[in-house]
């Protein structure tokens, strides 16, 4: 079920010992390319973007009531904590074994997750339109839990498909999916509550054709775009700054997520109901943010996804608090900005997870689950605290002070981190060694899977050979098993050792090698190595 290799199974054209995709050279003629042309180049990702959007739409309809309210209280963040506890078991398994889920396992998880999410939505719809005695708290909570668990697993699959991409591609992928999902969610608010669940179930099932069509298109890492200086994906002359940057930015996201959790239930923990006008305003504002972020990023505004996104999110949190205080009888006005803050956190978390998947050495699911735990877990804890702790929910002054404190801490952590990156970039090369070792051994960096001191030369060589075998497999239409055999056989392994590693018989290994020779037209191990050296990256 789980592969035992230590490589990160990079997608083709993205070898572990190569520069990150955002560092690839781009012709000078592309520097004058307009936004439309850049977006058009990402058309192959349309099915994957739609799949991610469909997944989120099903989750929001099933567990968040299509944002008819700021959330559904215990059915949103309460079930989120339960679902995260289940996913944390898989996270611990990957962390302890340092394994990578194979492609077959990933596909099976994705298929099962889609079915689980669709089933839970159908179950929720049946509870609403069925006999009243069925629509009890326990059944609704169970349906929401299954929907959340399936939705998070599906999101992890779609994000995994976009790993090793450039910064611009990550923005288009993340905020493009957020844009589409918001439109799909908005259409469901015009339906009866029970019907909207069945509508969402159909949307979720549409992920199946999206998966099949996406597999016929180029991967995200195949799309080249300009590098964006000073961004998460631009790892310049040393790896220390990128590790510190990614590790500490998660602290900032977690603290801001706590503030978001308090704001969603201001002031006493109850959900805030939207009026038609404020719900429409919420949609228009988030769509405008998505368009602006994509356009500014494509136009090479270098600080959009660092300083820019944090300033925007902190400003939304502050404006929400001001609106709550100014219009205590119309809390849905402040909820517009709270919901926009939450939506931007969704897109930004997707973007950060892609950065971790592209830079870290662990299984992509390790980073996806960790991302959900950091921001959704922190938000859920804050939200449930507000619902259950009377000392907080009945003391407006205490709550305001707590939220503003969280906003300040999040801002300080993020901005000090940005300043440190600039400071490290100015340090001479010979002075970096000691500082890099300090970051390398940091417990936070190790937990986040950004350390690389554990990788031996053999690990790197095996990962590189796996990459080369995948490229050869694409060129000669080798099967997945043939690619696995080729990657080990090219390392100099005997047929017997290859068979033992892959748990197949020696005869089967021999048959695979014969088919590899027949398909490639090569006749020896040395010819295979020569071909890889000449025609693969």
TrEMBL record:
Keywords: DNA-binding, Membrane, Transcription, Transcription regulation, Transmembrane, Transmembrane helix. One of its GO terms (molecular function) is DNA binding. It comes from the Bacteria. GO terms for biological process: regulation of DNA-templated transcription. The keyword Transmembrane helix applies. Residues 1-11 have a biased composition (Polar residues). The keyword Amino-acid biosynthesis does not apply. It holds the Pfam family GerE. The chain crosses the membrane at residues 45-67, 79-97, 109-129, 141-159, 171-191, 197-214, 244-266, 278-297, 304-327, 333-353, 365-386, 398-419. Residues 1-29 are annotated as: Disordered. CDD domains: LuxR_C_like (cd06170). Residues 471-536 form the HTH luxR-type domain. PROSITE patterns: HTH_LUXR_2 (PS50043). This is Response regulator transcription factor. It comes from Ellagibacter isourolithinifaciens.
């Amino acid at each position: 079920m789980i592969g035992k290799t230590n490589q990160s199974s990079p997608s083709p054209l993205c070898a572990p010992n190569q520069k990150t995709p955002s560092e690839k050279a781009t012709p000078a003629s592309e520097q004058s390319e307009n936004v439309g042309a850049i977006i058009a180049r990402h058309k192959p990702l349309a099915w994957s973007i739609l799949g991610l959007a469909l997944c989120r739409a099903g989750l929001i309809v099933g567990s968040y009531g299509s944002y008819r309210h700021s959330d559904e209280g215990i059915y949103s963040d309460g079930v989120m904590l339960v679902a995260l506890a289940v996913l944390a078991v898989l996270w611990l398994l990957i962390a302890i074994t340092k394994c990578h889920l194979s492609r077959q396992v990933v596909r099976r998880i994705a298929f099962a997750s889609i079915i689980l999410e669709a089933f839970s939505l159908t179950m929720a719809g049946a509870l609403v339109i069925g006999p009243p005695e069925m629509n009890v708290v326990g059944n609704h909570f169970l349906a929401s839990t299954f929907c959340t668990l399936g939705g998070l697993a599906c999101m992890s699959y779609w994000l995994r498909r976009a790993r090793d991409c450039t910064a611009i591609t990550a923005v288009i992928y993340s905020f493009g999916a957020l844009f589409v999902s918001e439109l799909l969610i908005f259409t469901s608010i015009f339906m009866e509550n029970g019907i909207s669940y069945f509508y969402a179930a159909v949307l979720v099932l549409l992920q199946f054709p999206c998966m099949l069509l996406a597999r016929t298109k180029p991967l995200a890492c195949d799309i080249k775009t300009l590098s964006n200086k000073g961004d998460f994906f631009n790892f310049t002359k040393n790896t220390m700054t990128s590790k510190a940057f990614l590790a500490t930015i998660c602290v900032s996201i977690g603290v801001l997520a706590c503030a978001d959790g308090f704001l969603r239930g201001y002031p006493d923990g109850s959900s805030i109901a939207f009026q038609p006008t404020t719900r429409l305003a919420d949609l228009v504002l988030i769509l405008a943010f998505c368009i602006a972020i994509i356009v500014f990023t494509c136009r090479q505004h270098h600080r959009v996804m660092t300083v820019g996104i944090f300033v925007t999110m902190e400003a939304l949190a502050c404006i929400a608090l001001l609106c709550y205080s100014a219009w205590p009888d119309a809390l849905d006005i402040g909820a517009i900005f709270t919901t926009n803050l939450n939506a931007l956190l969704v897109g930004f978390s997707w973007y950060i997870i892609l950065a971790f998947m592209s830079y870290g050495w662990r299984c992509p699911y390790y980073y996806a689950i960790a991302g959900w735990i950091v921001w959704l877990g922190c938000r859920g804890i804050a939200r449930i605290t507000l619902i259950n702790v009377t000392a907080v929910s009945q003391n407006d002054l205490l709550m305001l002070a707590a939220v503003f404190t969280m906003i300040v801490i999040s801002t300080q952590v993020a901005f000090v981190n940005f300043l440190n990156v600039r400071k490290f970039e100015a340090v001479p090369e010979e002075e970096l060694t000691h500082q890099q070792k300090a970051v390398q051994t940091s417990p936070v960096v190790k937990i986040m899977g950004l350390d690389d001191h554990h990788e031996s030369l053999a690990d790197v060589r095996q990962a590189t050979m796996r990459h080369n075998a995948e490229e050869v497999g694409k060129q000669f239409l080798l099967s997945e098993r043939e690619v696995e055999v080729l990657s080990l056989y090219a390392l100099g392994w005997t047929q017997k050792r290859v068979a033992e590693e892959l748990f197949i018989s020696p005869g089967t290994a021999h048959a695979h090698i014969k088919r590899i020779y027949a398909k490639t037209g090569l006749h020896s191990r040395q010819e295979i190595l020569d071909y890889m050296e000449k025609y693969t990256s």
